[in-house]
From TrEMBL:
InterPro entries documented for this protein: AAA_dom (IPR025669), DNA_Partitioning_ATPase (IPR050678), P-loop_NTPase (IPR027417)
AAA domain boundaries: 3-177
Family: To B.subtilis soj.
PANTHER family, per database record: P-LOOP CONTAINING NUCLEOSIDE TRIPHOSPHATE HYDROLASE, PARA FAMILY PROTEIN CT_582
Recorded superkingdom: Bacteria
Native species: Alkanindiges hydrocarboniclasticus
Official protein name in the record: Cobalamin biosynthesis protein CobQ
Gene3D superfamilies linked to this entry: P-loop containing nucleotide triphosphate hydrolases (3.40.50.300)
């Protein structure tokens, strides 16, 4: 069974892309077959995977416009996972999409063709809840929500919960919150602990046990086009993302067992 996860939070700069790239690399280290789809016109996940966003022959734009089969857009990277890249052209897709039948399901229909080849498909979303992000939420079985534990983190949470509820009721009944990830975490800050406690009160065991610490190596690695594991594998950031990958895999096995499916 392929697990398809949208990494989403309409708040900017909370660690979505850092999580997408480093979780993809960590799952690959655990011998999982991983596809990372960059669905953000900023193209940060593409660059962070060591691929030049402005030199893509086929990209997420072609997938969303149905210009090319999804297979053509899948790149092999040096990072152990496959990638569908994106750049600013993706921003123009929104208008074309609006005119389509099944406009919310273009990505899902494309992914369906190739899903069997992967254990995990991660989709890095832009910081907005537009139709492109809705496509990610319709293609996914779960949402992974990175959250920075600061005062404003909880603002906007209601918007995201409402969107997920709405999509759940109308477009994708399978969509679940797969987990809330505390990112850029600084335990010396008392506010961090307060917000963390509030997240646990609100989301209960949906909050991952793994916490991603504030770690300068995580911020440096993208400039080298490398996931942290290839940049500084013994850093706290690298270890945290490996732990997250292990936690995700372990939970997935438990869920399958509970549903009576083979692990
Ligand atoms: N754990 C961390 N420790 C230190 N810096 C981090 C950490 N996680 C992310 N950063 C840095 O914070 C900034 C924002 O991170 P990132 O790009 O992953 O967020 P994002 O949610 O994808 O942003 P956007 O909403 O713009 O797509 C980046 O400069 C990144 O390098
Ligand atoms: Mg991003």
């Amino acid at each position: 069974m392929t697990e398809i996860l949208a990494i989403a939070n309409q708040k900017g700069g909370v660690g979505k892309t850092t999580t997408a790239v480093n979780l993809a690399a960590s799952l690959a280290v655990l011998k999982k077959r991983v596809l990372l789809i960059d669905l953000d016109p900023q193209g940060n996940a593409t660059m962070g995977s060591g691929v030049q966003k402005n030199e893509l022959n086929f990209s997420a734009t072609d997938v969303m416009l149905e210009d090319a089969p999804i297979e053509a857009a899948i790149l092999t990277t040096k990072t152990g996972y496959k990638l569908i890249g994106a750049n600013r052209e993706l921003a123009g897709v929104e208008l074309n999409l609006a005119e389509k039948n099944r406009r919310e399901y273009v990505l899902k229909d494309a992914i369906n063709r190739i899903a069997d080849s992967y254990d995990y498909i991660l989709i890095d979303c832009a910081p907005s809840l537009n139709l492109i992000t809705v496509n990610a939420l319709c293609a996914a079985g779960g949402v992974l929500i990175p959250m920075q534990c600061e005062y404003y983190a909880l603002e906007g949470l209601a918007d995201l919960s409402n969107t997920i509820d709405r999509i759940n009721q109308s477009l994708n009944p399978e969509l679940q919150i797969r987990g809330v990830l505390r990112t850029i975490y600084d335990p010396r800050n008392t506010l961090t602990n307060d917000v963390s406690n509030e997240l646990i009160a609100h989301f209960g065991d949906k909050v991952f046990e793994t916490v991603i610490p504030r770690n300068v190596r995580l911020a440096e690695a993208p400039a080298h086009g490398l996931p942290i594991l290839f940049y500084e594998k013994s850093s706290k950031g690298a270890i945290a993302y490996l732990n997250l990958a292990a936690e995700l895999v372990k939970q997935g096995k438990k869920q399958k067992k509970a549903q009576g499916k083979p692990a």
